[in-house]
Every structure is written in C-alpha cells, then in structure tokens.
Automatic annotation (TrEMBL):
Domain spans labelled Septin-type G: 26-298
Family assignment from sequence similarity: Belongs to the TRAFAC class TrmE-Era-EngA-EngB-Septin-like GTPase superfamily. Septin GTPase family.
InterPro entries: G_SEPTIN_dom, P-loop_NTPase, Septin
Protein localization: Bud neck
GO molecular function: GTP binding
Cellular component GO terms held in the UniProt record: cellular bud neck septin ring
Name this polypeptide is given: Cell division control protein 10
Species of the source: Wickerhamiella sorbophila
Annotated keywords: Cell cycle, Cell division, GTP-binding, Nucleotide-binding
GO terms, biological process: cell division; septin ring assembly; sporulation
Keyword Ligase in annotation: no
C-alpha cells in the first residue's frame, strides 16, 4: 500500500480533535478496587491519590480508638473534573479481608463482585436493544495492599493475588511504607518481587506487542518498581510554596509527594497520567474478553443438541 499526500489541505487531520470533543462530552469512567487488611491505609491512599475526600476514612484521633472497618463491599462514585475532563471515579472498598480468625474463602465475595460486573456487562451487551454506551461497572484496577511487615507475602496474600490477577489488573503496593527504614523497604521489596516470580503472579502492567520501544522501557521501569512503597495522608502542609500531603512524625515530616520519601508520585503518575486508558482497555480486551468467550462457549455447548445415550 502506498501513501498519498493530498494536493490541497483536506482536513481529516482534525479527526483527533473531533474524537477528543466527543470523548470529553461523554467523560470517562474508572472503577478502582482496593483490597487489603483493614487499617492498612486504603481509604486514605485513595483520597490522597485523587486529592479529594472520596473514600470514607476518619483516621483515628487517638491510639485507643479502634480502627474503622468496612463491613461489606461498598462502592462510591464521584465525578472529578480537571480542565474540562470529567472522570467518573468509582472506588470499591472491600471488607477488611483477612481480618477474621478463619479467613478461608474470604476472597470469594471480592472475586464474585468482579465476575458479577463482567456478567452484568455481558448481559447488557447481549440484549436486543442495547444502549449506545453501556454503563461500565467492570473493575479496571485492583490496588492490593501488602502489610509492611518485612517478612513477605502471607499464604493468604498469595492465594488472593493469584485469584484476582486472573480476572483483573492487579497493582500491589506496600502500605504505610513510612513505618520502614529505606534499607528495610528495599529488601522487603526485593523479597516480594522474588515471591511474585516464584508464584508466577501475573501482575499489571503486561507486556504488549503494540508497545513501541519507549513504552516498553517505561513498562520495564514500572515492573521493577512494583510493589510501590506508598504513604497516604489526609493532612496537608505547604512545602516550598506548594500544598502537599504530609505525615508528621516525632522525628520529622514525610512529604508524600517527595520521591525521596516514598513512591506515591510514581504510583499516581503510572495509574493516572500514563496508564489510565490502558487499564480500561486491558480490562475490556483481556479480562472481560476472556470471561465473555468462556461464557459464550459454555452457552453454545449447553444449547447444542446432545447425543442421546442409547440404553440397552
Ligand atoms: N503511618 C501511616 N499511617 C497511615 C498511612 N495511611 C493511613 N494511615 C493511618 O492508618 C489508619 C487507617 O487508615 P484507613 O485509610 O482508614 O485504612 P483502611 O482501613 O485500609 O481504609 C488511619 O489512622 C490513618 O491515618 C500511611 O501511609 N502511613
Ligand atoms: Mg477503609
């Protein structure tokens, strides 16, 4: 195929503007799920990520106050607007998984929730008169919070990470990383990365043939950084003329946005600035697609005329 350059300006180079205008009008939808034991700072991190009060967390005013628990899967939706771009953000908070004495199957409601959204979407797609734009409740990203204990993954973490990474984009983070020294954090991270490899966990971002060299290099950098050592906070302070989230400790102040202090900024730019659309696409084209084809194949098998078993 040869490419031709028109003699005069035709104007189809404006198609990107046209698409942009249409997309802006429609807005974007991101569904983010948080999983991890209660008290690991899930709600706080979500609020810090989007610089808004989205997830419900009071934080504790005193040390004797019990840590608040999320009793069941709850989702809250907010529309956030930034320079004309409307992002409808749904945060799905899961019950404090692993909080019980017996944590057998505690992941089931979480897995079921993700599959239910796939099945809901499939049903909407298959109706005779479907809406032009289906409301998308599929989980685009699961932020998995690992306890900063220095030991490594718990057997329960391994099971749950395995189950979740088969059906959704899973991004693990080391919670409350301000509680570890830099050396502890590095060795913990190395240990976790070795375990991810050992248990063959397929974590997001995935390699793709569509990536160019630059994208491939960036993905590699991100993969080496995972799990992100994060810190969240609902408190802010002005540092160098900029209001930033901070945590005050007796020994000093953690500036959440300082990359020398933690990897919060790397996580935020990865999730929001560079991979937001990829999370949505990967959910639709990889995870939902595999659910869809399994369901449709099963449907076909069930409806195929069965060979009658002759009994003598
Ligand atoms: N040291 C430290 N504490 C945190 C961090 N994030 C949250 N917290 C505190 O941990 C407690 C539980 O936080 P919350 O976000 O409600 O946890 P969730 O149960 O996982 O949603 C609160 O007192 C927070 O102030 C963090 O990054 N580091
Ligand atoms: Mg919470």
């Amino acid at each position: 195929m040869t490419s031709i350059e028109p003699k005069n300006y035709v104007g189809f180079d404006t198609i990107t503007r046209q698409i942009e205008r249409r997309l802006l009008k429609r807005g974007f939808q991101l569904n983010l799920m948080v999983v991890g034991q209660s008290g690991l700072g899930k709600s706080t991190l979500i609020n810090t990520l989007f610089a808004s009060q989205i997830a419900h967390s009071h934080g504790r005013k005193s040390a004797d106050e019990p840590v608040e628990r999320t009793p069941e899967i709850q989702s809250v939706t907010h529309t956030i607007v930034e320079n004309d771009v409307r992002l409808q953000l749904t945060v799905i908070d899961t019950p404090g998984y692993g909080d019980q004495m017996n944590n057998d199957k505690c992941w089931e409601p979480i897995v079921k929730y993700i599959k239910d959204q796939h099945s809901l979407y499939l049903r909407k797609e298959l109706t005779a008169q479907r809406d032009k734009y289906l409301n998308d409740t599929r989980v685009h990203c699961v932020l998995f919070f690992i306890q900063p204990n220095g030991h490594g993954l718990k057997p329960l973490d391994v099971v749950v990470l395995k189950k979740l990474s088969e059906i959704a984009n899973v991004v693990p983070v080391i919670a409350k990383s301000d509680t570890m020294t830099l050396a502890e954090r590095e060795s913990f991270k190395a240990k976790l990365q070795a375990e991810f490899a050992q248990y063959k966990l397929r974590l997001y971002p995935y390699a793709s043939d569509e990536y160019d060299v630059e994208e491939r290099e960036y993905t590699e950098t991100i993969r080496n950084m995972i799990p992100f050592a994060v810190v969240g906070s609902s408190e802010t302070a002005t540092i160098d003329g900029k209001e930033v989230p901070v945590r005050h400790h007796r020994w000093g102040t953690v500036n959440v946005e300082n990359t020398m202090h933690c990897e919060f900024v790397h996580l935020r730019s990865f999730l929001i600035t560079t991979h937001l659309q990829d999370l949505i696409d990967t959910t639709a084209h990889t995870h939902y697609e595999s659910f869809r084809s399994k369901q449709l194949l099963a449907l076909k098998e069930n409806s195929a005329p069965r060979k009658r078993v002759e009994s003598k």
